[in-house]
Amino acid sequence: MNDPLKKSIKKNSIQVKIGFLMIVAVILLSAACYVAYRNLSSIVSSIQTDVKPDLKLLSIREISMDLEKAENCVRIYTITRNRSDIRPYYKIISNIDEKVSKLRYECMNDSVLLQQTDNISKLIEDNIVTWNELLVLNKDDIVVEYMRTLSDQLDSVSETTQKKGILKRVFSRSQDGLLQDQVIINDLNNLVQQDSLTKDELKAKESRLARNSNEIQEKFYDLITKMENEVTELNIAKASAATRLADKTYLWLVTFTISGGLLAILVLFIIIRYVRKAYSYQVALENSKDEAEKLARTKELFMANMSHEIRTPVTAISGFTDQLLHESFNENVNRSLKIIKSSSDHLLKIIDDILDFSKLQNDKLSLEKVHFSITPILEDVQALFGKQAEQNNTRLSHSLSPETPPVLLGDPYRLKQIMINLVSNSVKFTKNGSVHFSVSSIRKKAEEIDLIMEFNDTGIGIDESKLKVIFEDFTQAEMSTTRKYGGTGLGLSIVRKLVELQHGTIDIKSRKNHGTEISCRIPYLTGDEKHLKKETIHPVSIPEEISRLRILIVDDEEYNRLLFRKILDRWKISCQEVINGMDALEVLKEERFDLLFMDIRMPGIDGVKTTQFIRNEMKIPESSMPVVFISATSINEEWQKYRKAGMTAFLQKPFTEEELLTTIIAVIEDKTHIVMAYSGDTGISKPVSAGKINLNNLYHIAGDDEKFVRQMLLSFNNTTRKGLEEMKEAVISAQWESLADLSHKMMSPCKHIGAIVLYELLSKIEKCIRNNSDTGSVQTLISESLREFESVSEILNEHISKMN
Amino acid sequence: MAHCWNDIRVTSNLSDMKKTINVLVIEANEYYNNLLSNALQQSINSILLNGEYRLILHSFTNAADYIRKIKSQELECNDAIVFLDYYLGDGINAAHIIRLLKEQTCDTMVVLLSQSRTVREKSNLSHYDYFVVKDSLAPALCSLYLRQFIENKFSVTLDG
């Protein structure tokens, strides 16, 4: 299984694991919530039920109260005989009936309670019947009472009128009345008798009623007690159930919580493991990236070094061959020399191709943007391949359409490179035919055009099936082409990359044995003739002023230095050679030159750093000593950087004698126009120069750090004073070697702060001792040194106090 | 920067886990020692190395201290650049130090400092990489060699 697939499965496996665990966690959480909700609802519902009053008990209490009220009404009525007192009775008993029915309904689920309720109901019925009978009995009693009242009245009349008995008083009213009275009395007696019966009956009923009431009350109490017991039992049972439910809920919740916690830990563990793995992968990836970048840098450096290393000897071969060609040899030697020259030039071309290709591959190639004329480029290309075309019996021609702007803004070097590569191919593959290259333009905007370059030849052509790969790296249409015609196979690849780098397009049409048509379209801005670089007139003779120049050559390659010397000697120019930047700096400390040729790549400190040092630290301005950089590689991309470092001009190796002379003349001519960029301002903010001391260097190093300057001056005072004291002691004990060392040790600081007199005195002391000459004068020199130091120290102290 | 006169140790702001590159100044004169140390420290501050390395400046006015530290391996002599004065006092000169570095097979770049250009010829020393005359340009040159050492060591190009 391949690695990406494995990684994908691994990655998915982690996602599945986490997803599964998350789902389980969600399910557990939902279940926990559901169980908790259900159980809590049940408990809450139970509590709500318990809070509600028991309706049965309420009904019983109401019925009991109603019975008491009804009984009271009957009793009050029997006492008052007031009808209004009996009215509530009827209302109460009608309600009792309803309440009993309700109680019965409420006890429907409990057979015992229902039976009890039925008993109570029956007893209440009995009570009501008894009360009704009592009431009926009490109504008769009213009549009896009425009759009694009547009898009493009769008795009272006979006593007042005749003082006779009740019967005499009744009969004394009339004869007829006598008979009637007798009847009445009889009736009354009957009534009394009946009343007596009724009273007995009434007593019996009241007695029954009281028993009934007691029985009802007892039954009620029983019922209530029973019901209360039942309710209590029920509550206990419910409380027990609720406790069980709560325990169960707690258990569930604890279980779910623990499970959830474990799941969370598991998920966390998986995530942490995944993150750690991801981090380790990321670190590995970053390391790989760093390695790759380092490798790319190394490759780039290698390419640049190799290019330089190969170009340098080839440059020497080409240069020296050129020099030899100036001398007269026999024809055979000359032919050999020409072959060497041609081969070395060809080798240089290949090296350039490889270097350009490497830069293009790494996106390191940057484009120049200068105003340039297109006509000289066309002419140069024509001239470059004219001879080769002629050798191939091929007619080489070119044309420029009149609407093409004469000056363009862009990179002329790369445009020329594209043309050279394409024309070179056309000429190489065309025998006995013609090659024509033309340039035209299409205006897109006011200052923007598309430059169209067409290259037509009648050469061997390319098979249509190969056209797609022709622009690929290291590709030629046929392998046999390389063998027959040579080349690296990079030419067209470089062309395509250069065109694309300039946002252009390239098309090719070709038929085997019918020739090739290549068309390039590159956008350019129209240029300005005023900004065109002045063409330097090729010198035909060495100007007199050139011979007065003093030139320093800095190059680590011996043959390059020899080549320079050979040419410059011929021109009678005085020159000095050094092999590296360090030596150049040492020489420049002592001498000045009119011009410096500086190789860019050198061991130790390179040409760029050396030049920077010359400009920034040694303060030698461009106007005083121009620096021409020399290198085997072109410096298009680095131009600005080198200018900033202090470069005045650039000369690419190999160079011809004419190119060297042109460069020298151009630089020397321009020398007078160069802005005095370095003159005046030395960058030292507070220079102090008071005859005996010069603190310019110290201030330069310190920058704005006055504290450092102060510390250094105090240190100088202390160490020098101490040193001089030690010297005095060393003289006494005749420790001459130690004395020389002490003297030597103090010299550098003295020189640094510009205490030159003191420096020279110390120098003399050291020399006297080291040369074993006149140690007798050492004592005097030390005394002089002490005096000089005191005066220097005074100036320094004054300066320090001003700083405070 | 805090200066003390013996074994100045100033690190660039990097963690302790990084590989150390020692920048050593062995110069008997305190004044000149400080001058060089200051210039080199400024260079160190301006050099931003990748995360794996750090630069530490050690400064010695007494060569014997340096010898003791190297012998006791208290101070790593590999991956180091030494700015070494020729005359170190107490009968010690640069030749002793260079011989010691050779004995210890140290991968050290040596910048020899001297008051006089003639020392270069007279001393007959061969195991040094650069020679600097102790003039007004010396601190700048030493900084330049330090930067070059870093560039060569890490195959980088430092700005400025």
Question: Outline of this structure?
Answer:
By secondary structure, chain A is an alpha/beta fold. Chain A has helices at residues 3-51, 55-80, 83-106, 111-161, 166-171, 175-325, 331-361, 374-391, 412-428, 479-485, 491-501, 558-570, 581-590, 607-616, 639-645, 657-671, 696-702, 706-732, 736-752, 756-770, 776-803, and strands at 370-373, 395-400, 407-410, 434-445, 448-457, 505-511, 515-526, 550-554, 574-578, 595-599, 627-631, 649-652.
Keywords:
heterodimer; A: 804 residues; alpha/beta; Heat Shock Protein 90; Rossmann fold; 4 domains; seven-stranded mixed β-sheet; 21 helices; B: alpha/beta; six-stranded mixed β-sheet; two-stranded antiparallel sheet; globular
Please render the helix and strand layout as text.
The complex is a heterodimer of chains A (804) and B (160).
Chain A: H1 3-51, H2 55-80, H3 83-106, H4 111-161, H5 166-171, H6 175-325, H7 331-361, E1 370-373, H8 374-391, E2 395-400, E3 407-410, H9 412-428, E4 434-445, E5 448-457, H10 479-485, H11 491-501, E6 505-511, E7 515-526, E8 550-554, H12 558-570, E9 574-578, H13 581-590, E10 595-599, H14 607-616, E11 627-631, H15 639-645, E12 649-652, H16 657-671, H17 696-702, H18 706-732, H19 736-752, H20 756-770, H21 776-803
Parallel strand pairs in A: 2-4, 8-9, 8-10, 10-11, 11-12
Antiparallel strand pairs in A: 1-3, 3-7, 4-5, 5-7, 6-7
Helix pairs in contact in A: 1-6, 2-3, 2-4, 2-6, 3-4, 4-6, 6-7, 6-12, 7-11, 8-9, 9-11, 13-14, 18-19, 18-21, 19-20, 20-21
Chain B: E1 8-11, E2 19-26, H1 30-46, E3 53-60, H2 63-71, E4 80-85, E5 87-89, E6 92-93, H3 94-103, E7 108-114, H4 118-122, E8 130-133, H5 138-154
